[in-house]
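Thread: Newbie trying to understand structure tokens

Hi all, I'm a second-year student working on a class project, and my supervisor (Dr. K.) asked me to get a predicted structure for one chain before our next meeting. I've only ever worked with sequences, so writing a 3D structure as a token string is new to me. If someone could post the tokens and maybe explain what I'm looking at, I'd be very grateful. Here's the chain:
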Amino acid sequence: MGRTAQGYPGAGTEEIDDIAPADEARSWADEAELDSFDRFVQDFWAGRVNPDDFRRFRLQHGVYGQRQQDVHMLRVKIPWGGLTAPQIERLADIADHTPRGIGHVTTRQNVQFHFVPLAEAPPLLRALAEVGLTTREACGNTVRNVTVGHCAGVCPKEVFDPTPYADAVARFLLRNPMNQNLPRKFKIAFSGCPDDTGLTTLHDVGARAVVRTAEHGVEEGFVVLLGGGLGPAPQLAQPLEAFTPADDLLPTVAAVVRVFDRHGNRENRNLARLKFLVKKLGIDAVRGLIVREREALRLTTPFPAVSGWAERPPRPRPRDGASPAGGDPGYARWRASNVFVQKQVGYAGVHIRLVRGDATAAQLRAVARVAREFGDGWARTSNQQNLVLRWVPVDALPLVYAALAAAGLALPGAERLIDVTSCPGADTCQLGITSSRGLALALSGMIERELPDLADAPGLRIKISGCPNSCGQHHIAAIGLYGGARKFHGEQAPTYQLLLGARLSGEAPRYAKPVARIPAREVPSAVKALLEAYRAERVADEPFDVFVDRVGAARLTTVLEPWTELPPSAESPDKYLDWGAAEPFTLQTGPGECAA
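---
Reply by user tm_fold:
Sure, no problem. This is what the structure looks like when written as tokens:
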């Protein structure tokens, strides 16, 4: 198609063949709103703004309350996961100014910083804005970060790159009046390939790139999915229509947002997501509302044209010919598990596995250096809590490995069994019941030590949430876990509901199903027993979800049964503690701000 590069980050209107990836990006920030935030904070401290109004305002600006008093989580919105090297370096600067000294990559491709005093938020927001980053609408009852599968633009399987459309949707909705007071949060995701790396079925709106044969050639478009979501009542998204032309995407998304705004439940926030509206009215009725709203919007609302861009290789850079990683025994494992081939010949993408999604300031600066020296000057956050470098020349992979290893960033097993996903849990979240981060570390350590032959198994993931709300995406894991509590012999202990057998691909997608409830300290032993049974009883290269179906829930419940009870605390006091805790466990949750 004869598309121009208008809309490419840092690009003008040159022909697409002349465009190479830029080191600059169009800004998402707004200086005037930073002044407003600063004034609002001052007015709140002076008592001129009541706490409820201030809470809504700061959430709209990405400043989220923690369970600890007088500190906040700062959530930086990373539309479609795209970060330039200067932006990554600024995130490192922010990490340096926070107590933990880390940036945390989330399952929705944002970057979070914890334990930030409110007084420090305004200067940090200004520092982010200087490099074009914003926290606006990263929290609150708004359209949250618009996400895209990390391989978009370079995936050999993709139909076309959906990133320009995700960028256009994000820019259209950011600060848009229709998006400032929705019934509850609203999430949008894109995928360009059949692997659905964007996880579109989980979202309020998912858009999968497709093409169809038209009178004048091949026409690009999307299958738009509606009403997906996780949480205590998970639901898979359903298609709006068979084909939505690419030129109709913006009006379609806007229509869905408007319908949700008008018809979503504003009385009960627990029933306020789009999935509940679909369940209440039925998918056909919701489709009708959206189509009618789209027709009206076409007549009344000007929508910007969306022009695609093309990924292009970075300018060649001189490099030493040495390959210092060639003799490193860890290099082969890293390359096998963390490197994927791009559709552009001679180039590869590199997953950087972040333990629990965390990167130190020094590590973020190392990523920026490697992106500049060996890639296109960009990195992408992934919905698996990792970072991804693209446009790495295949012959430079040993050098990239060595550079990453020097920063502690060459851990193998990205998006494999050992790469355990977890939400922040009770460490910082007001809704958290258990320390999902502590369990994630215990599980990955157990796998590395005791099940090394399975550590890099593809398609076999563990995901953990500290409560039923599924921020750790436990419903889509081979082995999912979410936190809770139960009394054993009259004393409270942290527990996890264990779920098995999610399947998102194929003709019969499904979420994982609950099988057993396990005390927190017994989870590594229970998971080990389960994986050992899989290894011993699977048929050839049988996928885990197929294994679960074949052996059945009764057999797996038997495998897990020895780990479902606890002795009295006098006999084993440690088993009543949460991971990483020295004090007795107590069930403590507060008013979450996810839908404040």
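A couple of things are worth pointing out once you decode it. Residues 1-22 have pLDDT under 50 and may be disordered. The first strand starts at residue 63 and ends at 65. Feel free to ask follow-ups in this thread.
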